[in-house]
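As described in the Methods, two query proteins were run sequentially through the folding procedure within a single session, without resetting any intermediate state between them. The first query and its resulting structure tokens are shown here.
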Amino acid sequence: MGLPHYQHYINGKWCPPSNNDFIESINPYTAKPWCLIPRGNANDMNQAIEAAHLAFTQGEWPKMNATARGALLRKLGDIVSQHAEHLAQIEVTDNGKLIAEMSAQLHYLPQWLYYYAGLADKIEGQVLPIDKADMFNFTLYEPLGVIGAITPWNSPLLLMIWKLAPALAAGNTFVLKPSEFTSASAFEFAKLVEQAGFPPGVFNVVSGTGQEVGDTLTAHPLVAKIAFTGGTQTGKHIYQQAATHLKKVSLELGGKSPNIVFKEAHLENAAKGVISGIFAATGQTCIAGSRLLVEKSIHDEFVEKVVAIAKTAKMGNPLSYETQVGPVTTKPQYEKILSYLDIAKAEGAKCVLGGSKATRPECGDGWFIEPTIFTSVNNNMRIAQEEVFGPVLSVISFEDEEEAVYLANNVIYGLAAGLWTQNMQRALNLSKRLQAGTVWVNTYRTLSFMSPFGGYKQSGIGRESGQEAIYQYLQPKCVWISTATEVPNPFIMRLK
């Protein structure tokens, strides 16, 4: 019996890839293929974009008012809620993240749909008190058009919904290119969109590689905006392509986030926060607290606490609720992380935990790496400056607050930062000084549909979630209506 296989979802129909080619999707726990996804090409992507453009300009969707769009999103949220456990199982099989996390994530995911369903008909323009007595002036917010979304392999549906919910609430149509490593859940989600009753062409999914379908999406003239989550280098490439047609972009990119621990912190809680920041999700998260900055006077004591907790981590089958550290999602990423372990050792970092692939019996043939902690790290080392995207923690000590801020900000990234202190004056002051889009104080890796998320510096452009996100998918229009009985001098711009 062959592997289950998926088809593209284009214009409300399931379509085989035009070249009849498929990609094996590998279960990272077994290192074996478990399903087939379509290997799309430019022709497939062009069809999806044209369908989305047609749906935006004609038919039922553009005639639908904002309240009706909200009702559809709310219905979709209910359907997703009913299928959350199934979607979680699919994602764990496809990307190896823990079922404990993915189940919680998928059950929480409908909140984005509900939030933007409610926001859809709350977007209001303004009547402006214009400085010309015979003019009536007001603003409107209108959708952009076709949104092209490109999502990564670490949290496929969550990071897709951050884009989809505000985009559809604003009245746009949507073409999704999921990661070729983890596309299965996107096709399962498309079944739910179909069940909810969205008009054909409003939501489309084409899978394949970046070169074969991603570049077509980012360069196509009918695509109004690209929303991307992924690595910084890929983000730069997308930004360059989007510039060809002056497309709007939102880019949520890499990070090298600091978790800063001061001596007055509640050290047991801080140690748990550090563990959460780097070993949860096997470190495969853009917000990973991969740099531990710890005050020198408590360095040894605190590192001992972190190592002690990390040593207890249970590795194994990500579909077991007992597992705490799962496999790396892709083989290329697995090999990349292993190479960084060698780089760190060559640079002089001291490995106090892990530092190699995992050979525990419970890890089987999967792509597992032991939770790893390096001390004696200099902030100029590659292990401290470059995104590893794995369960690898670099420990850097600091003397005082000024040095902590300097070290925290002295990277090209600025996605997130953690701060552990019982001194609230310090917490407030440093929250302003840290160059990061999110600052967590006495917590880490906490998210909400109500709170905007995005990066400073090379961690990205734009924001997702919260009210800010929907305006990333709208454009303002200004309308002037003259009430004058006579047109003044037509050869002069009207300034008075």
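Immediately afterward, the second query was submitted; its sequence and tokens are:
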Amino acid sequence: MSDLKMGPVETRFAEIIWDREPVGSTELVRLADEALGWKKSTTYTVLKRLCDRGIFQNEGGTVTSRLSRADYDTAQSQQFVEESFSGSLPAFITAFTRRKKLTEDEIAELQKLIDQNRR
């Protein structure tokens, strides 16, 4: 799962794809130039890297995701909890709430998730 990690610039590029997919590779070059100031070669290099990681695919000049933004976020969250808190969600929540108190709405939302997972 560590090969799914993206840096901040790769993430911005990925968001361009997720927001517009399916997107033609020519259009993607234009969008990356506008948003990131990238040349064609940089766009294709980064795209290839993300395709090799299994996040996107470029089939016949059309770029689509192999991993949705939600699935990517889920994988990153799971990896963070695993690496930083030995996989313990309660340990993560304890650490998180030491500095930021949960609102009543957040508590209700968490309780709803707990109740749904009990079933």
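The helical segments are 8-20, 25-36, 40-52, 69-85, 89-99, 104-118. We note this only descriptively and draw no conclusion about the first query from it.
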